[in-house]
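Request: Give me one sample?
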Amino acid sequence: MKIKTIGLIAPSGNIKNFEEINNKIKILEKNFIVKKFYNENSQIRYLSDNDENRIKYLENAFLDKETDLIISIRGGFGALRIIDKINYDLIKNCNKYYLGSSDASILLMALSSKTNIKCFHGLMITNGFIENSEKNIQIIENDIFNINLTPIKKGNIKGILWGGNLSSIVSTLSYSEFLPDEDIILFLEDLNEPLYKIDKMLYEIYRCKKLKEKIKGIIFGDFYLENNEILPLLNEYCKFFDVPCYHTKDITHKINNVTLPYGKMIFIKWFIL
């Protein structure tokens, strides 16, 4: 599907600088029709709006017949409060793409489980989508998977891409209804988390039997720590999970974050030359 109209939603954290966002939108409008599905005057504490309005705007975006791609403006916190209240039957069969990351990892998990919406993990409006829009649109329209991986524990993996922000994923472990039926390649990233909290959250995933049994491989992204600090811990968890594991700096909150087709069946084969 050719993307002509982009809908912007704010289902998570408050937007601190609307002037900056509107300047970015003006750049996006040079090539696309842009529709706003949020209220600039409804910020509540650290949320972009109350729960009911964030659900309403999200559902309206997916129901809008002209909109092809829906993008979260930013992450933060808020998706956890609404994922069990969204009317998935209402939006299940809408012919749309959805793009998000960070806190929106929760929406990716829910939408890919409950709807036929094509989901992508990637840059949002606040952290680089505009600057990389041509490349990101091409990946979304063509459903491309392409990323540089460094092996930690070599091996072939087959499964659907599933995961995202580590702290967001861990916060949803009680929502077993949103877990995929298929085997998964789990990908994880996070920022502003000390090593011991990363350890704690990885162990929570390890202890979650329903999720653990589906994990056939892991891609560890960027945790904003030096390799000599994070890699020994990742090596340890590769042994715990006993599955092929890879590392990349291209799953991140930074501008080099690669757009990934969420829920797409992937086969990663390690060639020894």
